[in-house]
Amino acid sequence: MLDFVRLQQQLRGFAAYQQQQRDLLQEKLQAALDAWRQVGDVEALLEEVDRARPSWLVARPLGERLQERVRVPSRPAQVTVVAADGSQIFPDRHVEPPCFLLNVGRVAFQLGTHEPVRLESIPRFCFRQEEVHELLDDRLESVSVEIVSALRDEFELEALLELAREARRDGRPLVALLDGTLIRWMIRRLHQRELEEQFIRRYVALLEQFRRERIPVASYISMPGGAEVVNLLRVARGECTPEPPSLSLDGLADRLLFSRLLRPGERSGLFLSGSHIQRAYAEPHRIVCTYLAVPGPYGQAEIARVEFPHWVAEENGWVDLVCAVLLKECEKGSGYPMVLAEAHEQAVIRAPEREAFYELIGRQLWRSGLPVGQSRKQTSKRRPVL
To answer: Environment class of residue 1 by beta-carbon count within 10 Å: exposed (0-12), middle (13-18) or buried (19+)?
Structure first.
């Protein structure tokens, strides 16, 4: 229970502090815009990045001109769009026997046709030791959140590939979409280099299957928090020199910069992510991004980050196809791609379903004459006294 009286004491001064932060952010944003306009020679700037070797993640522009802005073309009249999203029930140390659940929702739209929408969810119940033994020697009860999340991401990509194959139509463009990043950030939290590299190899192997079958795959990140492009400007401003400027751009997100640079319906140029994890990706699969200005109410635009493997960026027209599909889906979905929202609805496991999941486990074990273990703490949390 939250004590609002005590909380109110801590909230004093909150508005004044936020105003100070907003003023500082506006000052940083103006400095970033000035630096953006002054960059001329991209190659020279990248050479400076290589010399400076900053500790920050720095995006590498793929075009000759940093200030590129592209008007996204109209979406093709007919196009196949498939999407997948995932959720999970993590292993619970208060419940025995140990297990966890992955659930992927996936959808297929045959846009511009009268073909029916395909909506489905695919659960994967993991309770056998063999299901993780290829990856680690630990028992199921010690499987970490990061490992389950990595397995879920693999399952999402695998299910998306299968659906794309089934939904594909001859002569019709096809786009495969995911929510969130294609960069395996959570992998580095495993602190087991061999296991990390194994997960990345498995993920990249799935991307390779998309490439071989010529299926453009991309991911959509709403309100991205990264600052790789801003960090490029920090190098341009000399922030990693012995005498840096007094005002640092640290804390300024890329989306704030592009909110001042892009009009609704436009995208930025292409940037290769500076993530160190990408060193483990095979060259064609290193992740490239563009920033997309999604139209919103009152003429405002939300800046989304769209990611795809490098091989998608190299194919003529594929980036524009992906962005055109996303813009139209955002228009239908009130600012967020409808196809991804539908995939999420198929994937999400709500609290009553989680409880029903554990109830089904208990019933099945009881019918088989087997015990089911649950800590007193977990029982009391599920059935509060007051």
So the answer is: exposed
